[in-house]
Design a protein that fits this description.
Number of helices: 11
Organism: Imbroritus primus
Structural class: mainly alpha
Oligomer: single chain
Number of strands: 2
Protein name: FadR family transcriptional regulator
CATH topology of the largest domain: Four Helix Bundle (Hemerythrin (Met), subunit A)
Radius of gyration: 20 Å
C-alpha cells in the first residue's frame, strides 16, 4: 500500500485524474491482482480514490472529501506528508486544541481533574526514571483534556492529528529539556482548568503549542509536537 501511495504522490496526479489499472499496478509492484484490489478498496473507503465501473481508478476529484484517517494511515506507513499538509494539520490542531481546553475548563468533572493530575505525575516519573514513553503520556494528557469536554465527536476529530504526528513527537520528546518544559506547561494548563479559567487555559495552551511551532520552524528540528 505504501508503494502505491508513494507512486501517486511522486507522480503528482491531479484530482480526478485516472490512475494505472489494476493489471498495470499488479505488474509494476509484482503482486497478485487480489492484493492490489484489496489495497484499492481500503483507499476507496478512505475516499482517497474512487473506482468507476467500466472506466477505471481515479484520484478523488474533491480533495476535501479525503478522510483524515487517510493522512494518518500515510504517516503510519512512512509516507512523508508535504510541508504544506503538515503546516495545515498543525494549524487545524491549534484551533481544535484551543476550543478543547476552553470547553474542558467549563465542563470538567472531579474525575477528569484526577485523571489529568495522575498523568502529570506519571510524566514526571517517566522523565526521571524512564518508566513510560513520554510521547504517549503527552498524548494521554491532551486526549484527557478532550474527554473533559464531554464531547466525543470533538475527541474523535482531534485523534487523527496525533496519529499523524506520532513519529515526530517521538523525536521531539527525545530531548529531556523539552519533556520537562512540556510537563510544566501541562501543570499550568491543569491549574487553569481547576479554576475553570477558560481564558487563561487558552492562553497557556496557545503558548504550549506556539513553543512547538517555533521549534518546528528551525532547520533539522521535528515537524510537530
Amino acid at each position: 500500500m505504501a508503494e502505491l501511495i508513494k507512486l501517486i504522490e511522486k507522480r503528482s496526479y491531479d484530482p480526478g485524474e485516472r490512475l494505472p489499472s489494476e493489471r498495470e499496478l499488479s505488474e509494476r509492484f509484482q503482486v497478485g491482482r487480489g492484493v492490489v484490489r484489496e489495497v484499492l478498496s481500503v483507499l476507496e473507503g478512505l475516499r482517497f480514490l474512487e473506482r468507476r465501473r467500466n472506466s477505471g481508478i481515479y484520484l478523488n476529484v474533491a480533495p476535501e472529501r479525503i478522510s483524515l484517517e487517510a493522512l494518518s494511515l500515510f504517516s503510519a506507513l512512512g509516507v512523508s506528508l508535504s510541508v504544506e499538509k503538515l503546516s495545515e494539520a498543525l494549524e487545524v490542531r491549534r484551533i481544535i486544541e484551543l476550543q478543547g481546553v476552553l470547553l474542558a475548563s467549563q465542563r470538567r468533572t472531579d474525575e477528569d481533574l484526577h485523571t489529568l493530575a495522575s498523568i502529570i505525575q506519571r510524566f514526571e516519573e517517566a522523565i526521571a526514571h524512564g518508566t513510560e514513553r513520554i510521547e504517549m503520556l503527552d498524548y494521554e494528557f491532551h486526549m484527557a483534556i478532550f474527554r473533559a469536554t464531554q464531547n466525543m465527536v470533538l475527541t474523535q476529530l482531534v485523534h487523527p492529528f496525533y496519529l499523524m504526528s506520532e513519529s515526530r513527537r517521538q523525536l521531539f520528546f527525545s530531548d529531556k529539556t523539552r519533556c520537562i518544559a512540556s510537563n510544566e506547561h501541562h501543570k499550568e494548563i491543569l491549574g487553569a482548568i481547576v479554576k475553570q479559567d477558560s481564558v487563561l487555559a487558552q492562553e497557556i495552551m496557545s503558548q504550549h503549542i506556539g513553543r512547538v511551532e517555533l521549534l518546528c520552524s528551525m532547520p533539522g528540528q521535528p515537524s510537530s509536537q
